[in-house]
Amino acid sequence: MRRDPIFYRMFQRSPELLFDLIGTRPDNASDYRFDAVAVKEPKFEIDGVFLPPELQQGVVYFCEVQFQKDEELYERLFGESLLYFYRNSAKFSDWQAVVIYPSRTIEQSKVYPHRSLLNGEQVHRVYLDELGDVQSLPVPVAATVLTIIDPAEAPAVARDLLARTQQEFSAKEQKDMVDIVTSIMVYKFANLSRSEIKAMLGLDLTKEPRAIQEAKQEGREEGREEGRQEERVLALQRERSLILRQLIRKIGGLDELMRDRVRALSVEHLEELGEALLEFEAIADLEAWLSKLE
What we know:
The longest helix has 27 residues, at 225-251. The protein has 13 helices and five strands. Among the domains are: 1-130, Trna Endonuclease, Chain: A, domain 1, CATH 3.40.1350; 224-294, no CATH class. The model is unreliable at 205-216 (pLDDT under 50). The protein has helices spanning 4-13, 16-22, 73-87, 115-118, 139-146, 154-168, 171-188, 194-200, 210-221, 225-251, 256-263, 267-276, 283-293; strands at residues 33-39, 44-51, 59-65, 94-101, 123-127.
Protein backbone atom coordinates (compact mmCIF):
# COMPACT_ATOMS: atom_id res chain seq x y z
CA MET A 1 0.00 0.00 0.00
CA ARG A 2 1.47 3.35 -1.08
CA ARG A 3 0.58 5.83 1.65
CA ASP A 4 2.18 9.03 0.36
CA PRO A 5 -0.70 9.94 -2.02
CA ILE A 6 -3.08 9.67 0.94
CA PHE A 7 -0.90 11.91 3.08
CA TYR A 8 -0.45 14.40 0.25
CA ARG A 9 -4.23 14.54 -0.17
CA MET A 10 -4.67 15.18 3.56
CA PHE A 11 -1.97 17.85 3.55
CA GLN A 12 -3.53 19.46 0.48
CA ARG A 13 -6.86 19.77 2.25
CA SER A 14 -5.46 20.72 5.65
CA PRO A 15 -1.84 21.95 5.85
CA GLU A 16 -2.33 22.41 9.62
CA LEU A 17 -2.11 18.61 9.97
CA LEU A 18 1.67 18.78 9.61
CA PHE A 19 1.94 21.02 12.65
CA ASP A 20 -0.41 18.79 14.64
CA LEU A 21 1.91 15.86 13.92
CA ILE A 22 5.06 17.64 15.12
CA GLY A 23 3.33 19.31 18.06
CA THR A 24 4.31 22.85 17.08
CA ARG A 25 1.82 25.14 15.37
CA PRO A 26 2.84 28.63 14.18
CA ASP A 27 0.30 31.44 14.49
CA ASN A 28 -0.23 31.49 10.72
CA ALA A 29 -0.52 27.69 10.32
CA SER A 30 -3.84 27.99 8.47
CA ASP A 31 -2.22 30.26 5.88
CA TYR A 32 0.37 27.70 4.76
CA ARG A 33 -0.10 25.87 1.48
CA PHE A 34 1.15 22.43 0.54
CA ASP A 35 2.85 22.28 -2.85
CA ALA A 36 5.67 20.87 -4.96
CA VAL A 37 8.68 23.01 -5.86
CA ALA A 38 11.35 22.66 -8.53
CA VAL A 39 15.05 23.41 -8.58
CA LYS A 40 16.36 23.97 -12.08
CA GLU A 41 20.11 23.33 -11.75
CA PRO A 42 20.55 20.49 -11.04
CA LYS A 43 16.95 19.76 -12.07
CA PHE A 44 14.75 18.01 -9.50
CA GLU A 45 11.38 18.42 -7.84
CA ILE A 46 10.49 18.27 -4.14
CA ASP A 47 6.94 16.98 -3.70
CA GLY A 48 6.16 17.77 -0.07
CA VAL A 49 6.75 21.42 0.74
CA PHE A 50 4.74 23.66 3.06
CA LEU A 51 5.11 27.26 1.97
CA PRO A 52 4.32 30.24 4.18
CA PRO A 53 2.09 33.02 2.83
CA GLU A 54 3.66 35.07 0.07
CA LEU A 55 5.20 38.37 1.09
CA GLN A 56 5.85 36.91 4.55
CA GLN A 57 9.40 35.75 5.21
CA GLY A 58 8.30 32.71 7.18
CA VAL A 59 9.55 29.17 7.72
CA VAL A 60 9.47 26.66 4.86
CA TYR A 61 8.80 23.04 5.86
CA PHE A 62 10.01 20.06 3.83
CA CYS A 63 8.01 16.88 4.42
CA GLU A 64 8.85 13.29 3.53
CA VAL A 65 6.42 10.38 4.01
CA GLN A 66 8.59 7.26 4.20
CA PHE A 67 6.99 3.83 4.52
CA GLN A 68 9.83 1.83 2.95
CA LYS A 69 13.46 1.59 4.01
CA ASP A 70 15.69 4.03 2.14
CA GLU A 71 19.32 4.01 3.24
CA GLU A 72 20.03 7.34 1.52
CA LEU A 73 16.89 9.21 2.54
CA TYR A 74 18.61 11.78 4.76
CA GLU A 75 21.34 12.47 2.21
CA ARG A 76 18.73 13.23 -0.43
CA LEU A 77 16.32 15.09 1.86
CA PHE A 78 18.91 17.37 3.41
CA GLY A 79 20.81 17.88 0.17
CA GLU A 80 17.74 18.89 -1.83
CA SER A 81 16.16 20.91 0.97
CA LEU A 82 19.29 22.93 1.69
CA LEU A 83 19.87 23.60 -1.99
CA TYR A 84 16.30 24.82 -2.43
CA PHE A 85 16.63 27.00 0.67
CA TYR A 86 19.92 28.40 -0.63
CA ARG A 87 18.34 29.29 -3.99
CA ASN A 88 15.33 30.91 -2.27
CA SER A 89 16.80 32.18 1.00
CA ALA A 90 15.45 35.70 0.40
CA LYS A 91 11.88 34.32 0.66
CA PHE A 92 12.23 32.43 3.94
CA SER A 93 13.49 33.14 7.45
CA ASP A 94 14.25 29.50 8.27
CA TRP A 95 13.73 25.90 7.13
CA GLN A 96 12.61 22.74 8.89
CA ALA A 97 12.15 19.15 7.78
CA VAL A 98 9.56 16.56 8.84
CA VAL A 99 9.92 12.83 8.15
CA ILE A 100 6.89 10.60 8.79
CA TYR A 101 7.59 6.91 9.44
CA PRO A 102 5.21 4.08 10.33
CA SER A 103 7.78 2.98 12.95
CA ARG A 104 11.44 3.35 13.88
CA THR A 105 12.32 0.13 12.04
CA ILE A 106 11.89 1.91 8.68
CA GLU A 107 14.40 4.66 9.44
CA GLN A 108 17.70 4.43 7.62
CA SER A 109 20.53 2.80 9.53
CA LYS A 110 23.28 5.37 8.98
CA VAL A 111 22.22 8.37 11.04
CA TYR A 112 25.56 9.33 12.65
CA PRO A 113 26.71 11.65 9.82
CA HIS A 114 23.50 13.63 10.30
CA ARG A 115 23.48 13.68 14.10
CA SER A 116 23.57 17.46 14.41
CA LEU A 117 20.47 17.90 12.29
CA LEU A 118 18.59 14.87 13.60
CA ASN A 119 19.17 15.83 17.23
CA GLY A 120 18.53 19.54 16.73
CA GLU A 121 15.42 21.68 16.44
CA GLN A 122 15.11 21.73 12.64
CA VAL A 123 14.31 18.09 11.94
CA HIS A 124 11.21 16.34 13.26
CA ARG A 125 10.85 12.56 13.04
CA VAL A 126 7.27 11.33 13.46
CA TYR A 127 6.68 7.63 14.21
CA LEU A 128 2.99 6.89 13.71
CA ASP A 129 2.98 3.83 15.96
CA GLU A 130 4.20 6.00 18.86
CA LEU A 131 1.58 8.75 18.67
CA GLY A 132 -0.64 7.05 21.24
CA ASP A 133 -4.13 5.64 21.47
CA VAL A 134 -5.94 6.46 18.23
CA GLN A 135 -9.18 7.27 20.07
CA SER A 136 -7.47 9.98 22.11
CA LEU A 137 -5.79 11.67 19.13
CA PRO A 138 -7.31 14.58 17.18
CA VAL A 139 -9.31 13.20 14.27
CA PRO A 140 -6.93 14.33 11.46
CA VAL A 141 -3.92 12.87 13.32
CA ALA A 142 -5.87 9.69 14.07
CA ALA A 143 -6.55 9.35 10.33
CA THR A 144 -2.79 9.19 9.68
CA VAL A 145 -2.50 6.38 12.25
CA LEU A 146 -5.37 4.55 10.51
CA THR A 147 -2.98 3.97 7.59
CA ILE A 148 -0.88 1.56 9.71
CA ILE A 149 -3.62 -0.17 11.71
CA ASP A 150 -4.15 -3.88 11.10
CA PRO A 151 -6.96 -4.51 8.55
CA ALA A 152 -8.85 -6.61 11.10
CA GLU A 153 -9.11 -3.60 13.42
CA ALA A 154 -9.34 -0.86 10.79
CA PRO A 155 -13.13 -0.89 10.11
CA ALA A 156 -14.02 -0.28 13.77
CA VAL A 157 -11.41 2.48 14.07
CA ALA A 158 -12.61 4.08 10.83
CA ARG A 159 -16.24 4.07 11.97
CA ASP A 160 -15.22 5.68 15.25
CA LEU A 161 -13.33 8.39 13.37
CA LEU A 162 -16.35 9.15 11.22
CA ALA A 163 -18.61 9.33 14.28
CA ARG A 164 -16.23 11.79 15.92
CA THR A 165 -16.09 13.77 12.70
CA GLN A 166 -19.86 14.30 12.76
CA GLN A 167 -19.64 15.64 16.32
CA GLU A 168 -16.61 17.90 15.94
CA PHE A 169 -16.40 19.15 12.35
CA SER A 170 -18.26 21.47 10.01
CA ALA A 171 -20.14 20.08 7.02
CA LYS A 172 -17.26 20.72 4.60
CA GLU A 173 -14.73 19.19 6.97
CA GLN A 174 -17.00 16.17 7.39
CA LYS A 175 -17.11 15.64 3.64
CA ASP A 176 -13.31 15.87 3.38
CA MET A 177 -12.78 13.44 6.24
CA VAL A 178 -15.26 10.92 4.82
CA ASP A 179 -13.33 11.04 1.55
CA ILE A 180 -9.98 10.59 3.30
CA VAL A 181 -11.09 7.73 5.55
CA THR A 182 -12.80 6.00 2.62
CA SER A 183 -9.65 6.33 0.50
CA ILE A 184 -7.50 4.83 3.25
CA MET A 185 -9.86 1.88 3.55
CA VAL A 186 -9.93 1.40 -0.23
CA TYR A 187 -6.13 1.08 -0.19
CA LYS A 188 -6.29 -1.35 2.73
CA PHE A 189 -8.97 -3.52 1.14
CA ALA A 190 -7.98 -3.52 -2.52
CA ASN A 191 -10.36 -6.39 -3.27
CA LEU A 192 -13.41 -4.31 -2.31
CA SER A 193 -15.08 -1.55 -4.32
CA ARG A 194 -15.56 1.95 -2.97
CA SER A 195 -19.28 1.21 -2.55
CA GLU A 196 -18.50 -1.89 -0.51
CA ILE A 197 -16.09 0.13 1.62
CA LYS A 198 -18.74 2.76 2.29
CA ALA A 199 -21.20 0.05 3.26
CA MET A 200 -18.58 -1.39 5.63
CA LEU A 201 -18.25 2.03 7.24
CA GLY A 202 -22.00 2.47 7.59
CA LEU A 203 -22.19 5.37 5.15
CA ASP A 204 -25.49 6.11 3.43
CA LEU A 205 -24.84 5.77 -0.29
CA THR A 206 -28.17 7.29 -1.34
CA LYS A 207 -27.88 10.72 0.21
CA GLU A 208 -25.44 13.13 1.78
CA PRO A 209 -25.16 13.50 5.55
CA ARG A 210 -27.85 15.72 7.05
CA ALA A 211 -25.27 18.26 8.23
CA ILE A 212 -24.04 18.71 4.66
CA GLN A 213 -27.59 19.09 3.32
CA GLU A 214 -28.40 21.69 5.99
CA ALA A 215 -25.21 23.60 5.28
CA LYS A 216 -26.08 23.73 1.58
CA GLN A 217 -29.57 24.98 2.37
CA GLU A 218 -28.20 27.62 4.71
CA GLY A 219 -25.76 28.69 2.02
CA ARG A 220 -28.59 29.15 -0.46
CA GLU A 221 -30.69 31.07 2.02
CA GLU A 222 -27.82 33.42 2.79
CA GLY A 223 -26.86 33.91 -0.84
CA ARG A 224 -23.48 32.23 -0.47
CA GLU A 225 -23.74 29.70 -3.25
CA GLU A 226 -21.51 31.73 -5.57
CA GLY A 227 -18.71 31.76 -3.02
CA ARG A 228 -19.14 28.05 -2.38
CA GLN A 229 -18.95 27.35 -6.10
CA GLU A 230 -15.70 29.28 -6.34
CA GLU A 231 -14.32 27.30 -3.42
CA ARG A 232 -15.26 24.02 -5.11
CA VAL A 233 -13.54 25.13 -8.33
CA LEU A 234 -10.36 25.98 -6.45
CA ALA A 235 -10.48 22.66 -4.60
CA LEU A 236 -10.85 20.83 -7.92
CA GLN A 237 -7.89 22.72 -9.35
CA ARG A 238 -5.77 21.73 -6.36
CA GLU A 239 -6.89 18.11 -6.71
CA ARG A 240 -5.91 18.06 -10.39
CA SER A 241 -2.54 19.62 -9.61
CA LEU A 242 -1.89 17.03 -6.91
CA ILE A 243 -2.79 14.10 -9.20
CA LEU A 244 -0.54 15.43 -11.96
CA ARG A 245 2.40 15.72 -9.54
CA GLN A 246 1.83 12.17 -8.34
CA LEU A 247 1.70 10.89 -11.93
CA ILE A 248 4.93 12.67 -12.86
CA ARG A 249 6.64 11.25 -9.80
CA LYS A 250 5.37 7.73 -10.55
CA ILE A 251 5.77 7.40 -14.34
CA GLY A 252 7.82 10.39 -15.47
CA GLY A 253 7.10 13.45 -17.59
CA LEU A 254 3.75 13.93 -19.33
CA ASP A 255 3.24 15.82 -22.58
CA GLU A 256 0.71 18.64 -22.72
CA LEU A 257 -1.92 16.51 -24.46
CA MET A 258 -1.80 13.92 -21.69
CA ARG A 259 -1.98 16.65 -19.03
CA ASP A 260 -5.05 18.11 -20.72
CA ARG A 261 -6.76 14.69 -20.68
CA VAL A 262 -6.13 14.43 -16.95
CA ARG A 263 -7.31 18.00 -16.33
CA ALA A 264 -10.57 17.23 -18.14
CA LEU A 265 -11.51 14.46 -15.68
CA SER A 266 -14.42 14.90 -13.30
CA VAL A 267 -13.95 14.91 -9.53
CA GLU A 268 -15.11 11.29 -9.30
CA HIS A 269 -12.72 10.16 -12.03
CA LEU A 270 -9.83 12.12 -10.47
CA GLU A 271 -10.40 10.22 -7.22
CA GLU A 272 -10.41 6.94 -9.14
CA LEU A 273 -7.19 7.92 -10.92
CA GLY A 274 -5.61 8.80 -7.58
CA GLU A 275 -6.13 5.19 -6.53
CA ALA A 276 -5.32 3.57 -9.88
CA LEU A 277 -2.00 5.37 -10.37
CA LEU A 278 -0.51 3.46 -7.45
CA GLU A 279 -0.32 0.45 -9.79
CA PHE A 280 1.09 2.36 -12.80
CA GLU A 281 4.62 1.60 -13.95
CA ALA A 282 4.79 3.49 -17.25
CA ILE A 283 2.97 6.13 -19.27
CA ALA A 284 1.33 3.30 -21.21
CA ASP A 285 -0.57 2.35 -18.07
CA LEU A 286 -2.04 5.85 -17.83
CA GLU A 287 -2.87 5.81 -21.55
CA ALA A 288 -4.68 2.50 -21.16
CA TRP A 289 -6.60 3.73 -18.10
CA LEU A 290 -7.73 6.92 -19.85
CA SER A 291 -8.67 5.05 -23.03
CA LYS A 292 -10.79 2.61 -21.08
CA LEU A 293 -12.51 5.48 -19.29
CA GLU A 294 -13.19 7.37 -22.50
